[in-house]
Amino acid sequence: MNMSLNKLNPLLCLICLISLVSFSASAVTVSDLQHQKMLTIETWLSSEADSNRADRNQASQQSDSAKGEALLTTVVGEQITLNIKLGTNRWFTRGTQIDNIELPNVMSKQREQFSVNSTQRINGETWSFQLWQISLYPQAPGRYQVPELGLSVEVMTLSDGKVSGKLVSQAQLFESIIPDASLPDDNWFSSPDVNIEQQWQQSNSPVYVGDSLTRTVTIKAADTLSVLIGDIIPQTANEHFQTYSDPVQLFDSEQRGDYLSTRIEQQVYIVQQGGELIFDDVVIRWWDTVNKEMKQQVLEGKVVIVKHTLTSWLKYYRNTLIVMTCLVIGLISLFLAMARYYQSHQKPIGWLYLQAVKAKTWPKVRRLLYYKVRQSNQQLTLFDGVKQQNQNLAVNIQQLDPSKANSKPLTKRSAYALWFAVKTDEEKPQSRLIRRFLTKVFPKALPQLTKYSNQDPESK
What we know:
Blueprint: H1 2-26, H2 30-35, E1 39-47, H3 64-67, E2 72-75, E3 80-88, E4 91-92, E5 97-98, E6 106-109, E7 116-122, E8 125-138, E9 142-146, E10 150-156, E11 162-168, E12 172-177, E13 188-191, E14 194-202, E15 207-208, E16 212-222, E17 241-245, E18 249-255, E19 258-271, E20 275-279, E21 282-288, E22 293-299, E23 302-307, H4 310-316, H5 318-342, H6 349-359, H7 362-377, H8 382-385, H9 391-399, H10 412-421, H11 429-441, H12 447-453
């Protein structure tokens, strides 16, 4: 029994030794590889204006003055790139996973799902590198700190096999500003290169009421996000047309490191009324991050002449047609009522005079003139009853005298001039009211005289 135990002791020692070696190998961590300078991580920020590497390691633990480095300053909406570079003297055995960035008032987007891989010969060793880039877009002015990010990695070592764990990036500081105080609060974006196009389409030519017009605006901007490009076409609606907006189309693409964002807006206008239809201009503003200046482009509106259909014409002029119809009906009704009235009543003296002049019955014309003079100013002669004494009126009055055989016949124009030359009593409105009041209070003793004076002048 003792002999068998002695034979087992060397075997047990060998097993324990192998276990200890395996345990020590499994105890190697990512942090150990960092301390042994077999695994490295670098973090920095860059922008279009500052494309060089700006190493700001441990920025969260140092003040700006202690760092001795210039703080990265960008414009609101300008693209900032967070660069994270991993390196090992062996190779990476699986993809690296990066934690999400949560930073208020900053939008982040990892445009590329894969890293930029490269190799480099350092001190006789071949190193493998992974470069990860995350785009940041500040939405408000202020100072921001990009927090530390965890990166899950796995590398192959020479003696320890695969080692997996988590690395931590360095925190970074940057500042975002508004470049010009005159800029509006919104409705502008930042980009180094912008291309804008506009298209108009109409369902028919010429345009009639009920037809449609379509306005399409396309913006292509580099180094930004499509969601950061604000609304383009204003939402307008009035009695002339109805507006229908198609869903906004947003595209973000990357090609060989060049980022391009596209926003497409389309509005359809359904014409409701005829006439001149005016669409306003659209102004698009952006900050040029390369030339450091504000730029804008004006998309011209459109003036369309819309033709009426019968239905739209009746609808458009409905109120005018109603008023005109009522007016015509009223005038016809008034004319018919006057015709019926004057069938049994005395006709106006002016109407009788007009008919006498047209018929050139000068005795009747003379009689009606005397009647108007007597009624208007109580004069007994035409010379005294006219407004002014001049040679033309005197000649016209003499032409009415039948005893003047050598006188020329009176013309229609002269007859009308005599009619309008008759004077009227310039009685004040107050005196007229008083006279009417006294007439009501003190009636005339012989009303038959008034009745006789108001009889038809043709019956006299």
